[in-house]
User: Which sequence fits this backbone?
């Protein structure tokens, strides 16, 4: 490999490194990550369209979601980068430059929904690792001991109180409106360390954890108030238009500009038991816990199987700055008169996320 080619590969990897880290952990298996929709959500997700809250059955909801996401061969390259063999360490560093990220996330919460109103408490946690390569060819091979490639460990946690509601303007109306208020406490920290602080090896971000994705302690704390709104309009029989607005009150937090983001969706009924939804963000904006402008497009299919089962299938394209990542998702819901159970998965070029929701009335 020539020095020019190596520099190009490192530059490409650096620009692409952030791409997959900004996806929020899905809540209540409801949203595009698990094959559903945000604009035409199932009504359970406090981050979904509040105009759809009346679509969810009344009851108490409990949820958990989580899993690892990583670029191809990230963990194996991360382990090999600490090798005392210069050739093995060099190969691992080049591999990390092309597959430079890994993230572990989880979310859990409780929510109550009654007659279109919701009140919930949720927590999301993120542990991410991002590789920042040293592009100097002289610092590879026999000179790897002088390589200054670094890892940045990102730890973030949010505790969120959500309340609001929505539904048809009046009985029989085809227009639905909704508003949701979020009160959030964010804890965050970022630590960057080089590989070779004391000879070839991995940094530990000040933690004794054997697995770097177990993260490190947070150091900074702040509050955010978010106001979201949504509307659903029926344009014709079986044809609906939806609009949402997130973070309508702008907030600047740790260098992140949390500005309003608008999203539009179109839903078509396909017979009596299927609905096709196409949706996308109309503008790009920063979102916690990382400073990067993002924008998402998605398509989903909702299938009603008999009287007690619903299947959601979909795919989303998430663009972070100029880098896009495509993932697919699926959810199975089993609905009873007073119980709902849902299990969802996300598929893509990473280890799939998984989640479950249980409702009892």
Assistant:
């Amino acid at each position: 490999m020539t020095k020019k080619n190596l520099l190009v590969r490192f530059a490409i990897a650096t620009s692409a490194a952030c791409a997959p880290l900004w996806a929020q952990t899905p809540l209540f298996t409801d949203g595009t990550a698990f094959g559903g929709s945000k604009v035409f959500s199932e009504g359970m997700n406090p981050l979904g369209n509040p105009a759809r809250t009346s679509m969810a059955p009344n009851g108490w909801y409990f949820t958990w979601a989580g899993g690892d996401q990583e670029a191809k061969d990230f963990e194996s390259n991360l382990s090999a980068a600490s090798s005392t063999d210069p050739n093995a360490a060099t190969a691992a560093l080049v591999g990390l430059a092309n597959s430079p990220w890994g993230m572990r996330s989880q979310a859990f919460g409780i929510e109550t929904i009654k007659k279109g109103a919701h009140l919930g408490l949720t927590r999301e946690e993120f542990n991410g690792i991002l590789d920042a390569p040293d592009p100097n060819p002289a610092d590879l091979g026999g000179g790897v001991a002088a390589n200054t490639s670094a890892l940045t460990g990102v730890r973030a946690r949010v505790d969120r109180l959500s309340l609001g509601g929505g539904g048809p303007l009046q009985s029989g109306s085809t227009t639905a409106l909704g508003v949701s208020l979020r009160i959030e406490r964010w804890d965050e920290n970022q630590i960057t360390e080089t590989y070779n602080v004391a000879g070839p090896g991995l940094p530990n971000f000040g933690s004794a954890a054997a697995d770097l994705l177990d993260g490190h302690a947070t150091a900074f704390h702040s509050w955010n108030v978010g106001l979201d709104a949504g509307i659903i309009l029926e344009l014709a029989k079986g044809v609906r238009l939806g609009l949402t607005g997130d973070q309508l009150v702008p907030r600047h937090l740790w260098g992140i500009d949390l500005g309003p983001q608008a999203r539009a969706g179109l839903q078509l009924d396909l017979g009596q038991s299927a609905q096709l939804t196409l949706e996308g963000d109309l503008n790009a904006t920063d979102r916690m816990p990382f400073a990067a402008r993002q924008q998402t497009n998605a398509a989903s299919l909702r299938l009603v199987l008999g009287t007690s089962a619903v299947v959601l299938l979909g795919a989303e394209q998430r663009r972070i700055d100029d880098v896009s990542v495509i993932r697919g998702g699926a959810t199975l819901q089993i609905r009873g008169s007073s119980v709902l159970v849902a299990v969802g998965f996300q598929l893509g070029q990473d280890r799939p996320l998984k989640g479950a929701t249980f409702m009892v009335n």
